[in-house]
Structure formats: C-alpha cells, structure tokens
Amino acid sequence: MSEQRPERRDLVAEFEAAYSTTPPWDIGRPQPAFAALAAEGGLGRDVLDVGCGTGEHVLMAAEAGCAAVGVDLSPTAIRFAEAKARERGTAAHFVVGDALHLDSLGEQFDVVLDCGLFHVFDDEDRHSFVESLARVVRAGGCYFTLCFSDGEPPGWGPRRVTQAEIRGAFAQGWRVESIEPAELYVTIRSDPVRSWYASIRRI
After folding, report:
1. Which domains does the chain have, with CATH numbers?
2. What is the pLDDT averaged over residues 133-145?
3. What is the pLDDT of residue 6?
4. Residue 178: enclosing H or E segment and its boundaries?
5. pTM given for the model
6. Which residues have a Cβ under 8 Å from the Cβ of 100 and sit 6 or more positions away?
7. Which residues contact 127 (CB under 8 A, 6 or more apart)?
C-alpha cells in the first residue's frame, strides 16, 4: 500500500475505532440492491468490493460463483471478514488496502461494488478514487455504488451526494447508465437511508 497522507492515517484510526462495536453500516447481510443484482446474474466473473467492511457483499459474490475480492482500510474489518469466510466455508479473498490505490491489488475486475464508500470522500479524494477505479475495472466493466443521496435530511452521517456530482465525477472514461433512488439500511434506525444506486460502465 502506498504511503498514506496523515489524514488517511486518521481515517484508518477512525474506522478501527468504529469496529470496536458494531458500526452503523455493518447490518450483517447484503444490501437489497446488491442482493438483487446478484440474483439477476449481474455480478460477472471477477468482483471487487471496495470498502468491504466485514465482507457480506464479497461473500455473496463468492457464493454466486464469482472470484471475489474485498478491500478495506480497517485491519479489524478484514479480520472479521476472513473469519466469516472460514465459518461459512466460502472462498473469498480479503486485503487490507486503500481504495485510492487499487492498482496495488495487481488485478482487474468485471464488477466493482461500493456500499457507502463514495460518499465519504472529499472532492480531492473523490477524483483520486475514480482514477483508482479506472485502473482496475476492465473496459466494459461496471461500478455499482450505493451512497447517501441529497434526499436524506441533514444532521448525521456522511455528506449527501447529488446526481449531478455522480455524473460529474464519472464524466471522463465512463458512461453513467442509471442513477435510481434506493434504500440503504443501517443498524442505528429502522428506516433505511435515502440513497442513490448508480450503475456506471467503464468505456
């Protein structure tokens, strides 16, 4: 993994602290939008989950017959994910790594899943993230993201994202195929978060 800026090291510490309990995003099952994608056979052959947390979407992909890899900044999250894989007898690969440096994986993928990562980046890191994705998504491959939408009232959680911001971030080298309202479930309340579910193809 490349040398991290101090603020990236702070982010590692923040996520490590979150895993001292159950963080809001760790619902213990796949998000419905990604479960539906898997059920429809939309995962392709090689799948990467960026910001994979404790691995539910990676394990879902592996159980669907994909070669599945998960990457996360948090060593604790990766340990939990590996333990789940062992318990379930599921072949999946997990890596402690930075989503801004995905080329360090040395692999390319048909599909990249992102549940709740895109919305944590500031403008500078958002640009770097899209460049990082471009190095690991094969031509014709797809990036699917679930992120907080601007329809979710302010006051807690990460930044809200507009459709225009998504389209702007992927204006070069990508084709935004769809952005639809979706539900993103969290542990801290019964109502899902208002989110965008975007399908974006590498061209």
Report:
1. 6-202 (3.40.50.150)
2. 98
3. 54
4. strand 174-184
5. 0.93
6. 2, 8, 125, 128, 129, 132
7. 169
